Amino acid sequence: MYNGGKIIAGIVIFIVLVTFPIWFSFSNESLGKKPEPKKPVGYEHCVEDTAYMKAFHMDLLNNWRDSVVRDGKGLYHSKAFKGETYPMSLSDTTVQSCMTCHSSKADFCDQCHNYVGVTPYCWDCHVEPKGNQ
Question: What pLDDT, in 10s, does the model give residues 39-91?
Fold first, then answer.
């Protein structure tokens, strides 16, 4: 076998390249600890269950925006908590809105968004929550 060394070197290089993302993520200190945002005090649950909100809150908020702005609908009927309705509002102070529970952008929103490296455009139109003021 004349090319045995080249074949073995190629296999080793291939394995290193394929597994690079895995071992790099474990060794990279800049990623830091996975964020655990503060849970709102005094509230049982969000409009949907926690797992759904972690994965799909951006889709939910985009759908809310379209429903309110384009269709004139203002109430959301929860799928997880049957029979419960919520106003489709981020910041309406006259009703229980998203920012009623999640009152600090730095303590809640920014932790996860910074961790995954996204910059949502919510605050282009909405006023950023600054905490309990």
Answer: 777 777 888 888 888 889 999 999 998 998 899 898 898 888 887 888 888 77
Strands 75-77 and 85-87 turn out to be antiparallel
Structure tokens at 131: 């905490």
**Is the confidence at residue 12, as pLDDT, over 90?**
yes
Q: How far apart are CA 9 and CA 76, in angstroms?
A: 59
Concatenated DSSP letters of 15-26: HHHHHHHHHHHH
Looking at residue 79, what DSSP letter applies? S
CA 84, 51, 71, 98 dihedral sign is positive
Instruction: Name residues whose C-beta falls within 8 Å of residue 101's C-beta, 6 or more positions apart in sequence.
Output: 40, 43, 46
**pTM for the predicted model, two decimal places:** 0.66
Q: How many helices (H) and strands (E) does the chain have?
A: 4, 2
- Beta bridge mates, 77: 85
- Over its C-alpha atoms, the chain yields an Rg (Å, rounded) of 22
Contact partners, residue 103, CB within 8 Å, separation at least 6: 40, 129, 131, 132
